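Researcher: Good morning. I'm working through a list of sequences from a screen, and I'd like to move beyond sequence-only analysis. For each chain I'm collecting a predicted structure so we can compare shapes side by side. This is the next one on the list. No need for commentary yet; just the structure.
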Amino acid sequence: MFYTIYGPATNAQTTYNRAQPLFWLETVGFGIELLSIGRNGSGSGGLWRAPTMKETIMTQKNTQRRPHGGNILVSSLLAQRVDRVFCVPGESYLPVLDALHDVSDKIDLVVCRQEGGAANMADAYGKLTGRPGVCFVTRGPGATNASIGVHTAFQDSTPMVLFVGQVGSQIKDREAFQEVDFKAMFSPLAKWAAEISDVSRIPEYVHRAFQTAMAGRPGPVVLALPEDVLSDEVFEMIEACRPAEPTCAAPAPHQLARLQDMLEMAERPLMIVGGGGWSGETGRAVEAFAETFGVAIASSLRCQDYVRNAHPNYIGHLGIGADPALARQVRESDLLIVLGARLGEMTTAGYTLIKPPYSENKLVHIYPDPEELGRVYQADLPINAGSAEMAKALALLEPKGQGDTAWIAAAHGDYTASLTIPQSDRDLDMADVVARLRKTLPDDTIVTSGAGNYTGWVHAYWPFETFRSQLAPTSGAMGYGVPAAVAAKLTCPERTVVAFAGDGCFLMNSQELATAAQYDLKILFLVVNNAMYGTIRMHQERNYPGRTVGTDLRNPDFAVIAQAYGLHGERVAHIDQFDAALQRALAAPGSALIELVVDPDAISFRTTIAAMQKKAKA
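Model: Good morning. Structure tokens for this chain:
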């Protein structure tokens, strides 16, 4: 490839030749272009050539300006096929904002109202697309606000790149204004945290960031951007970076052979699915494998949409407060095949359902990060492989026998029975609300939520049928649902998006209603108001009966808050009001919020405060 670079003083032309093409680096309006004009200028045959001096001048908007580090960074984002960036603007990365101005037709800049919301949106984007969600924040408080989203991306195995503005190199280590050592701060929360110290290395760092975010177990990467590196003008050729691609290990033939032998000997094999690196195709391959070999499927915490819940081999969700029948089935299984899940504390009921280090069941643990294998559970067969790669390999196996399909049918029947709405004499029962929503809305509706006891009703009574129709943090981060819904609607505008939030959860990122309004998004927000931090109250009732403190909430009128943002908002306190309120919300031209006023005694989908207090006194 030939391309032309113009020097800082004479604008003299220099032609470079590459045997292998570089991916283009476009900075329109400056004295640098790595754009192919055509083959020998005619569009056919021959070698690629550089633009002529006349062609370059014609494409320039301002020949007096030279590209700076911000331009190089944005061009590197384009090379990584970035189409959307979430941010709260900051003075520490003004050159990046300036460069984004020139590519507004290629990169959609979503301006958020708080950095925590922006980082959560980037996480949701990463979950939905499989490509890293990109977030820009300023130094100091901007970075600390965003850290919650980085932590969620780490625990949820979501590809994400967070760019943080940093003080200039010349004043570092003086505790300058908002200065933080971001490598030290983010190292425990990210796959890689680094600082770019040289403008010429920006493409290198960006490529590595995106490659690292997607490689093996996906996760977040943090890059700090000193002000001087971003503002430095460029006077020499800087090679563009190539687009990063996901990489993951695949199972070895001898491992597949051993797995096949274990399957042949098993009578009640059960697969637990979860983790990152999944797709709809991966889920379908797993379903086909389960059918062929007679394997039951359960989902790990908040990974309910990985396989179709209506599939006859699906038997339930190993989340918080898992169905007792499902817990029994896990214990009765004689072979556990864990695909992509870490087997964390929530999925294993505090490591009691599957006890480390040796599972009572035969255990095959398949995970993309080799360092996780053997870290907690010493499996009978550990396999370092990505979920997608493993699913493809499983599809090629030939069955030698089949497990107890009657056991699977009974287990699926138990799961189906668990979807039955229990009788309730309460004015507004969340199980009934969720069931009515599920019946009304499309199968591919994207459901978002944060953390809190209110999510239990969603997990229990909303069967998922489409991959990436559930966006919920396995990190247990409150405040996730609202910004995730904004990102979901921007990313998948053709799909219905519903955000569930508790009253405590909602107020942790309710400011992003303004973002929904600003971008004219149509989202349905549901705020479950029981006037308390319900999860903590439940733990207090269990562990310190009669000594509750710090959990009561005096809430605002959430419907009025929505109206203040220009959204449709109303309050529902009785189930008889819900259907009509839902239709009005769905008919609203923009986003809508329904506040659901529920009985505080209904502390979770499995018990009540009264029942807990009675048990404590017994």
